[in-house]
């Protein structure tokens, strides 16, 4: 297909030609070599393109796309308050899994209950990616990972028992109370035996104070 005259008229470097590629007009660097006594044109590659009636040079070295500014405050505070949680997780799970669990928890406690698809972006734009580098948090990776963690119920029980032992010597006192809670979206809101008298649904709050 012929190149429009207005495109060919755009000023561009010498020894080049214009080639159409889809809707783009690429500028190709050319030279020639002697073959069998005659000059044969040789293309050396794309050096730019015609955009909006102007020649735009192609960058030979792409600019970096690394994140240059990262959130610090929230994640740093939560990390400082985590205590020995990473070691406690690593006592049950592999260290790589323990770090991923910790990072997911720190992200969600810092920025709210995010969907799996948001974790990687928040990780890359926060200082957690500097504190705990190399954690795989793509949506598919996190979904598979958490499904596997949830399936190994015995490891979760082991972790919780270790926490109870660490904080309360293995003994806990449990207390509970009913509070009015008429949410239409939460499965935690149910009618109790007092529903007829109170006329509202309740949520059961459980307390576990440490005992000596």
Summed up:
With about 210 residues, the protein is of the alpha+beta class.
Describe the structure.
With about 210 residues, this protein is α+β, with helices and mostly antiparallel strands. It is about 40% helix and about 25% strand. The strands form two sheets. It has a four-stranded antiparallel beta sheet with strand order 1-2-3-4, with no helix packed on it. Strand 3 and strand 4 form a beta hairpin. Helix 2 crosses helix 4. The longest helix is centred in the middle third of the chain and has 17 residues. The protein starts with a helix and ends in a 5-residue tail after the last strand.
Attribute tags:
212 residues, alpha+beta, four-stranded antiparallel sheet, two-stranded antiparallel sheet, 38% helix, 23% strand
């Amino acid at each position: 297909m012929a190149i429009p005259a207005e495109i060919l008229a755009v000023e561009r470097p010498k020894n080049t030609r214009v080639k159409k590629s889809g809707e783009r007009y690429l500028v190709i660097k050319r030279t020639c070599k002697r073959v069998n006594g005659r000059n044969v044109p040789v293309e050396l590659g794309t050096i730019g393109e015609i955009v909006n009636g102007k020649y735009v040079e192609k960058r030979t070295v792409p600019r970096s796309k690394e994140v240059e500014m990262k959130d610090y405050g929230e994640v740093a505070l939560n990390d400082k308050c985590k205590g020995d949680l990473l070691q406690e997780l690593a006592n049950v799970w592999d260290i790589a899994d323990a770090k991923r669990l910790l990072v997911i928890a720190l992200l969600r406690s810092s920025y709210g209950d995010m969907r799996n698809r948001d974790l990687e972006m928040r990780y890359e734009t926060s200082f957690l990616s500097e504190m705990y580098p190399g954690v795989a948090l793509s949506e598919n990776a996190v979904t598979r990972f958490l499904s596997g963690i949830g399936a190994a119920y015995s490891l979760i029980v082991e972790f919780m028992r270790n926490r109870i032992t660490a904080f309360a010597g293995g003994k806990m006192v449990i207390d509970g109370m009913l509070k009015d809670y008429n949410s239409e979206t939460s499965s935690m809101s149910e009618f109790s035996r007092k529903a007829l008298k109170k006329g509202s649904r309740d949520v059961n709050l459980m307390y576990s104070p440490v005992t000596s």
